[in-house]
Amino acid sequence: MVRPNSFLSDEQIKTLKDKLLADQELIRNKHSNKDQYCMDKSELSDPVDEASINTQTSQEIRFRNRENFYEKKIIKTLAKITKGDYGLCNECDAEISFERLVARPTAELCISCKEEAEHAENNNAFKRRSKSLGKTIAEIGKR
Description:
Blueprint lengths: L9 H23 L14 H37 L14 H6 L7 H15 L11 H5 L2
Helix pairs in contact: 1-2
């Protein structure tokens, strides 16, 4: 049986899989050391220090959420490698170039489809309604 991703050599797949596993290990090691950065708020006497710590904690949570999201993408990608359908565009089933996969091993779209998606996203930004203002960016700009 021929693998759907047979355009990638076994060596290329191994290279990409090793990168994914290394990234996953890095994320997991970061998360295992997360408690060392936590401070007890009772240790803070200065409101400025407390505000600074709150800002720093908020930023760390954002980074951790981003890393969790990336780890989920890694797990999904590793499953695709195991299944044999890694490296194929989710939109058009075209082969995603090895160069693109080296740059972004979790890529799910070929360059053409990704550019189309980004173009559509940029065009739709002006059509989305603001949750707080109830208007689109285009409507706000017409004042």
